[in-house]
Amino acid sequence: MLVFKLRRRSNMADTACTLTPMELYGMLNLQGDQVRVLKSKKADKAEIDSAVQLLLKLKSHYKKKTGQEYNAACPPTEDVSSSNNGPAVEDGDDQVDPWNVSTSSAKGVDYDKLIVRFGSSKIDQELIDRIGRITEQTPHRFLRRGIFFSHRDMHQVLDAYENKKSFFLYTGRGPSSEAMHVGHLIPFIFTKWLQDVFNVPLVVQLTDDEKYLWKDLTQEQCHRFAVENAKDIIACGFDVNKTFIFSDLDYMGTSPSFYRNVVKIQKHVTFNQVKGIFGFTDSDCIGKISFPAIQAAPSFSGSFPQIFNGRTDLQCLIPCAIDQDPYFRMTRDVAPRVGYPKPALMHSTFFPALQGAQTKMSASDPNSSIFLTDTPKQIKTKINKHAFSGGKDTIEEHRKYGGNPDVDVSFMYLTFFLEDDERLEKIRQDYSSGALLTGELKKCLIETLQPMIAAHQERRKQITDDVVEQFMTPRKLDFSF
Amino acid sequence: MLVFKLRRRSNMADTACTLTPMELYGMLNLQGDQVRVLKSKKADKAEIDSAVQLLLKLKSHYKKKTGQEYNAACPPTEDVSSSNNGPAVEDGDDQVDPWNVSTSSAKGVDYDKLIVRFGSSKIDQELIDRIGRITEQTPHRFLRRGIFFSHRDMHQVLDAYENKKSFFLYTGRGPSSEAMHVGHLIPFIFTKWLQDVFNVPLVVQLTDDEKYLWKDLTQEQCHRFAVENAKDIIACGFDVNKTFIFSDLDYMGTSPSFYRNVVKIQKHVTFNQVKGIFGFTDSDCIGKISFPAIQAAPSFSGSFPQIFNGRTDLQCLIPCAIDQDPYFRMTRDVAPRVGYPKPALMHSTFFPALQGAQTKMSASDPNSSIFLTDTPKQIKTKINKHAFSGGKDTIEEHRKYGGNPDVDVSFMYLTFFLEDDERLEKIRQDYSSGALLTGELKKCLIETLQPMIAAHQERRKQITDDVVEQFMTPRKLDFSF
User: Fold this and answer.
1) ipTM for the complex shown
2) How many inter-chain contacts (A to B, CB under 8 Å) are there?
3) Which domains does chain B have, with CATH numbers?
4) What is the pLDDT of residue B365?
């Protein structure tokens, strides 16, 4: 959000004020809103006209000054005044929002930069050690290896936990297709670990309404995907006595408390705000515009009276991929204004596509990742054919110069799924030195993933419709606060 | 609302701008809002500080320039610049939308003009006669007297009805307070008649969520008003076996089908559309922006599977005041795109305030109308004291020139509530001729309203919480299609 300021040297004795591009831009934003307000209010024609006249004058002057057309969505790229004060537009930034993740670097998104941009905190060694001490467990490999790398308010959560004040977990998934890939498991594998070591209840939101609003799918399709995805989530081993999984299309219509929280949130968020956070435009449907409140609502324990006996004061912890943070920045902004605690968060990095870390995977491209339905043979073929290699072109060169694990997708996947730290470190060294060849590295990944996926498929087979229904039935969960 | 303008002589080649007191005042208003927005958004401290700094500078300068303290509530007394371009003249059109109804004519809104503007059809004698023929009943006085004056697709509804294809009724109320006045009864009195003569089921929506979003009220207050208003609605004599009354805050959370239709509608309406229809702005909350879909949903029979056995093809007829038409223009636009029949409508005129037909009544001003809780004495006093009279100043003049029933509120009220056509016509003639004095006319209205209100209060007393619960329980209704 930008504001317009008067240059220090500008003389306030008269009202003359020389505006910088950034100041002009801020003024244009305000005056633009002003014109919209007047029109919607059906104000006097004269009033509207003079407001519009000023707007046009400012625009033409803005163009004179910057050589650019005024565009509310993007501030002036060159700003003399702000060069020494504060964040203007950073070029070459990675793009990260709930619908787009892109970077130009083969190593992937610059996560330290994201922490600064999003204003979250780094999960540092001290926090990792503290979690280990409190849970008396070895911190999960996702923590040890910086895969969950960023957080909000975790120390506060742990302070309370040490004082016997527990919390509940909330994570979710957008069921855009039946097929889930290994990357989709990351938040669930970690959430399952958190549920075990902290012994806390968990709610899992399946946003089938969101997928209906965003994709060219019917409600029936989205709901079916939700149920199918629920099976893969359950197969991660969640405790049925501590876990509630719900489809929005079902749960909204079965819980007055959930809807009441959604409306409460919707009353406290303006279109200007969601426009700024999510980049919605006037031609987006009103369903998209109001949806963020639906993803926000499960952060508040009052949305689940059957689980929390109507208590609205319980702390929520949300493990999710960093691209979901905008939803929860909004939620944390609203929370105090509706009298609820702000949810805490733990953010994960993205799981790279087989083709490389430049992009997030798409469930639509079967070769972009390993799917939970792949056969051992498919896993082997995909990795050998598609996994981007950090190795050299010839064995000779590789032996001589070594490979680059930082851009090697097979090695990246091993950091996610190979539990043994020492072995992983040895692989890194041998690959870098050239002692380990790309083929051998891939073989090692194949031998790690094949049994893991097979075991998942085995567990998933055991999950009957009855089991799914148990998890998806609103009910009391087994825990004590 | 004021805006700041640049003096013609101000040179746009540089950004130097000399502000008049009025321009400074407008700038202060905008910047004041800006600061509030930043604070509520918990923006960076630096951002807020510089916005506040500018605000203070502007204030001190405003004082220098005007010798007055800036006060958002009152503009500067002297404004040179705006003297030559003052507020433009009204374009004469009546303003009619769900939140504002205003006209300059003492006879009230020009309804023929509205029909043209809204693109609806006039309820003409032919349609009235046809309704009489089909129902074998004398058309209701609201039809005979042009109180329900406009419609959409009524002939289609009647064609189907004659071919044994029935329909269902949908009307509603925004429960903004416990107090309802006689004007609020108009749609319900007429709907009750339609239910009787056509023998059809009815759904009544109480938009307590809307009132929560628009007013400074809690959800609990709005819900309580909904239940209280339900009692007055039930007291109109609706058949419990054919009528379902629901609060949005309750029903949304108890009916997945209702929510699914809401989302379906929300997917097919853009912000541009609701902006055009309802005049929403970017600073409106996302709850308001998506609400129209919630008022639209009951137009579709699929929103009530328990009543209509899951059928989605049943025709809906909506009796409502004309100011609600924008919601249903939107609904009729969406219907074919989601595969549902367009609802038909019958529009009523507005019930005039005691003070005159220029405005709609406000439940907040106790003297603007007769309330359903008024005692016989209060009714008498209000009418004698506040009912705008079309009579002459002195008895002599009145006898000589006669009164004007077209602007006389007591006479208007009689057209709503006096059943006897001949007697009403005689009153009109005698009042116009001067034979009937204002006092006598008012007496006649008092004698009509006192027993009517007393009887309503008597029926309302009989309505227990159990009865309310019966009406508000989702259930099968008694009818056949």
Assistant:
1) 0.79
2) 231
3) 9-75 (1.10.287.10), 106-353 (3.40.50.620)
4) 78
